[in-house]
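Following up on my earlier thread - several people asked me to post the actual chain instead of describing it. Fair enough. Here it is, all 367 residues.
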Amino acid sequence: MSQTTPTLLYIDDDDALARLVERGLSRRGYKVVLAASGEEGLARIRQGNVDGDIDVVALDQYMPGLDGLETLEQIMAIPDAPPVVFVTASQDSSIAVTALKAGAADYLVKDVTGDFIPLLRVAADGALRQAELQKAREEAEAEIHASRDRYAALAAEREMLLREVNHRVGNSLQIIASLLHLQASSAAQEEVKAALTNAMGRVAAVAQVHRRLYTSQDLKSVVLNQYLDSLLEDLRRSAEGNRMSRLTLKAEPIEIDPDRAVAVGIIVNELVMNAVKYAYPDGAGPIHVELTSQGEDLVLSIADDGVGDNAKADPRSTGMGQRIVAAMASKLDASVERDPDHAGTKILLKFRRLPAPSSTTNSAAAS
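Reply from S.P.:
Thanks for posting it. Predicted structure:
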C-alpha cells in the first residue's frame, strides 16, 4: 500500500450505493474515491498511478458505456495497476469466472442496502495482501535474476582471466622450450645436447596443456587425443634427422583435468624419447603411442619394435627419465608395467579416468 490509510477507488454508476460504500469503508479504515463510470474510473486510475494514491479498486459490472468486464480489461493493461475486486448484483456465476480469469483479485455479489460492505472490506484487504505478496515475489525474483547476472558476469570475467593466464604461461613455456632447442642445437657435447633436448620436451609437454586450455572453450579439461597429437608433432619437429618419422598415435577423445594431462604428457615425452635413444641403435624405427578406455580406467601404452631386453646399458644414462615417469605415475595413481610378451619394449600405464576422492583430499591437505 502506498499510504497508512489505503485508498479504494469505487467505480459504480449508482450514486446512492456509492455513498453508502464511501461511508461504510471510511469507518473501516479506508479512504474512498468515487467514479461514476468505467471511463472516469480508468482516468482516475491512470492519474492515481502518477500520484501513487490508488491502492485497490472495487468495480461494478453493469454501467453505461464501458461495463465492468470491459473496464477490467483496460485496467489490467495499465502498468502497475492496483488490484481489482469485481462487484455485481448478478447471481450469474459465469460473470465471476470471467472476471477472475480476466485478472480480478476477488469477486462478490452486492445488494442495494449496503450489507455487502463488510465483505467488500474483507475482499479489499485480501486483494491488498495478495498484491503486496506479488510485489515482494517479483522483487525477490528480480534480485535473483540480478544476482545471477552478476554471477554470470563474474564467471565470464574469471574465465577470461584464466584464459589470459594460460595464454601467457603457454607463451612463456614455449619461449623457454625454444631457448632450450637453440641451446641444444649449439651444444658441442652429445650428453649436453641430449639433456637440453629432454628438458625441452618436458617443457613443451606442459606448454601444450596451456595452449589447449586457452584455445579451448573448456578451461577445466583437456581432450587427450588432440593434446597428444600436438605433443608428438612437437617431438617430431624437435628430433634430429628422421628418428621420429614413424612415430604414431592412436588415442580416443578422452577428457581429463589439466593437471593429470600434464602428467600424461610428461610420461609420453619421457618414454618416447627413451625409445628414440635406445630402441633402434642402428637408426629409426616405429614407435607407437596408444590411449584407450576400459570402463572407468584409461590405459596408456608406448611401444617400439626395437632391441628390447637386448639393449646395452648406456653409460651416459642418469636414470632421470625413469624417476620422472615414476613421479608422474604416482601423481596419476597409475600402475606401470612392462609387457613381457612384446618383442621390443612396451610400457603400459593404467589409471582412473577421474582422480580418486582420497587422492584429492590428500592433495588438498598437503597444500
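DSSP finds ten helices and twelve strands in the chain. That should answer part of your original question.
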